[in-house]
Design goal:
Blueprint (H helix, E strand, L loop, with lengths): L1 H43 L4 H35 L14
Helix pairs in contact: 1-2
Organism: Bondarzewia mesenterica
InterPro entries: Vma21 (IPR019013)
Keywords: Cytoplasmic vesicle, Endoplasmic reticulum, Membrane, Transmembrane, Transmembrane helix
Length: 97
């Protein structure tokens, strides 16, 4: 029974970490583009709404790419823990040989 409780704690902690990341990226996806639009419209582009909209689109894409990269890295680490290997660099440098 003790090992089942320990396994449940690990799953709960993992689920909490995923939930926290989801909340952070969701808030970032809502706040960052809107904020960048208004800030860039007022201070950077001096009222040019086209350039401000492009700035907001770039900000939204940065958040999405960061979420994808975070997910891929986390998945690779999880797969490495299951197989017993820790992911290493794909290419060795000459110094490491």
């Amino acid at each position: 029974m003790g090992s089942q409780a320990a396994g449940a704690k690990t799953i709960d902690q993992g689920a909490q970490g995923v939930l926290v990341k989801l909340i952070i990226f969701s808030l970032s996806l809502g706040i960052l583009p809107i904020g960048s639009y208004f800030i860039s419209n007022k201070y950077i582009w001096k009222g040019n709404s086209t350039y401000s909209a492009i700035t907001a689109i770039v900000a939204a894409n940065i958040v999405l790419v960061a979420y994808i990269v975070t997910s891929v890295v986390e998945d690779q680490q999880e797969q490495g823990e299951k197989t017993g290997k820790v992911p290493t660099k794909a290419v060795e440098s000459r110094k490491e040989r």
